[in-house]
Amino acid sequence: MAAAGTGTQALREAPLEPIRFRLVYDGAGPVHWCRRPDAFGLQDKAAVLHPGAAGPGGVLVFDFALQLKAQDTDAPVFTGDFAHGPPAARFLYLGWRDARGAFARRLKLPLAGIGWDAVRAARERRAPLVATLVDHHPRATSTGANVGGSRPVAWALP
User: Fold this and answer.
1) Model confidence at 33, in pLDDT bands (50, 70, 90)?
2) Which residues pair with 154 in a beta bridge?
3) Which of 30, 61, 85, 112 could form a cystine bridge with 146, CB 3.0-4.6 A?
4) How far is CA 117 from CA 14, 71, 139, 152, 157, in A?
5) CB 60 within 8 Å of CB 48
6) Cα(79)–Cα(3) distance, integer angstroms
7) d(CA 19, CA 66)
8) Residue of higher predicted confidence among 135 and 53
9) Which element (helix H / strand E) includes 97?
């Protein structure tokens, strides 16, 4: 039986075109990193950082797409170059590198809160799902290591 909402079963069975996303980063970056434009970005599966575009007010905007995995699940399962983690707990990585090229900090941004209704609405409206990460207070441990971790964001249509 189809989940709530017309067309959800069809989305599960035939993923078709990718789902577009827009991540807006409004932040200062970590305490310690090399501060080069190529040292910050959305991380793909090959650990390459893809830089964002300058947005209004000094934010960085990352536009990207993910595919849907065709399977009958309660929640969408996203795949693609930027989808990391196990199917039930996919996330994005924002990463910063230090002067040696090692990761200075990575933040996990969960995709788990996105439901079938949001996916269907994004397709119908031909609009990206958008989230903003506000990160104005970077922290470091007493040993000088940047504090990373998971940061919840709310994905919604604009």
Assistant:
1) confident
2) none
3) 30
4) 15, 16, 36, 19, 11
5) no
6) 21
7) 5
8) 53
9) strand 91-97
Domain extent listing, the chain:
18-140
CB-CB contact of 103 with 43 (8 Å): no
Sequence letter at residue 137: H
Residues 6+ apart with CB under 8 A from 34: 97, 98, 99, 104
Mean pLDDT, range 80-103, rounded to an integer:
93
Position 6 pLDDT exceeds 50:
no
Cβ atoms of 154 and 114 within 8 Å: the answer is: no
CA distance linking residue 101 with residue 57, whole number of Å: 28
Which DSSP state fits 146? B
The three state secondary structure string of 5-66 is CCCHHHHHHCCCCCEEEEEEEEECCCCCCCCCHHHEEEECCCCCEECCEECHHHCEEEEEEE
8 Å CB contact between 3 and 13: no
- Mean per-residue pLDDT, 127-145: 84
Contact status, residue 154 vs residue 133, Cβ threshold 8 Å: no
